[in-house]
Amino acid sequence: MKTLSRVTMVVVSCVLVTMELVSAQPPLPGNEPAESFTTEDYYRVDKIDVHAHIRTEDPRFVELAKRDRFRFVNIVTDSSGPEELRQRHFAAFAQLKAHPDRVMVASTFPMDGWDEPDWQEKTIRFLDETFAKGAVAVKVWKNIGMVFRDKDGKLVMIDDPKLDPIFDHLAQKGIRVIGHLGEPRECWLPVERMVMHRGYYGSHPEYHMYLHPEMPSYEDQISARDSMLQKHPDLQFAGAHLGSLEWSVDKLGDFLDRFPKVIVETAARVRDLQYQSSLDHNKVRRFLIKYQDRIAYGTDLGVTATTTPERAIENARRRWLADWNYFATDKPIEVRQLDEPVTGLQLPKRVVEKIYRLNAERFFGGTFQDASRH
Length: 374
Ligand SMILES: [Zn+2]
Prior knowledge:
TIM Barrel
């Protein structure tokens, strides 16, 4: 009996020692459940969608998004010709005027007149006018590198020396550049080998580079973007759509290491993170924790005058909530392109706050304009 109780004592003390050892271990970063948000917190946390296209003067969409605590970077893209470009700028500034405390504007410039000797001067003047109206960023789009050709029929790439004075001007003025350059890597694959982007290229064969082998390769697009960034180290650059490195968090991490001032945003590429996390959940989670200061949340949502604001907010909210559950909780997330649901990453609260707001505020200059000044 005595022996037995001595054995018990030894076992108990061993257990106690082990427990002490376990509790002496530092907790895994951000693994404490109390440190993460819930689905319900979605309506309590201030958020910024850094990639929105609100192409209507109607102020109601932004008004309705107050309930979701979303503010916006409203991006103008030159994808449909000069008249449409004029209207898009007009709508973007109308949104800014209606909601100076909830909207920021990224303007853009047309490539028309590229071959004229005064193109650079005119473009700088055009952009300066948009800054005078309140734009804080400039969008460059994939038409540079994939569509626009000079008078000799040569595709103009983003590292073209003729663009250097524009980027120098923007760097000097502290205007940020949002670059959608190149496309997802799947764009260079046949449709049947695509996983996440089949729908888009199925309906946009003009941008499906696999069908256009004479066009620059994926690597050409990425290296042109990198060479532009090397030439302009002071430029405040945000890589749209995860910097077109959506297919590999390893490659994306290498890119962020090479360009320490650059950030990337998630627009229309959360699904690519989800695909990677379906293969290796912890790898994607570790990546987002490691680069928590370098990633901003964006969706690529579009709002036009043809959709009612109620319908537009319903669509946006579905996407926002699904993404919130993926980043903030450990719920199963349905992903249209995948057979099995993906488990949410349940990132630590602080990381979620950085991705959803703090990084965007830092990158885009701190705060939205104070409504009382207007
Ligand atoms: Zn977009």
